[in-house]
Design brief:
Layout lengths: L1 H6 L4 H18 L9 E4 L3 E4 L6
Antiparallel strand pairs: 1-2
Length: 55
């Protein structure tokens, strides 16, 4: 959806670019990037941000 909104079309090589940026973002904001809790993959849709819980 992000690619469709930004460039008007989706393309596999651009999807790889988005995935790479998401991985870099996770490595910076997630305590355990291999088990993300903040930047969540929604299969077939994209990604969502889950704000941290207070506590």
């Amino acid at each position: 959806q992000l690619l469709d909104q930004v460039w008007g079309f989706g393309h596999d090589s651009y999807e790889h670019t988005v995935n790479s940026h998401i991985n870099r973002l996770r490595s910076k904001v997630e305590p355990d990037p291999a088990n993300p809790r903040l930047v969540i993959t929604v299969r077939g849709v994209g990604y969502k941000f889950a704000p941290p819980r207070d506590g």
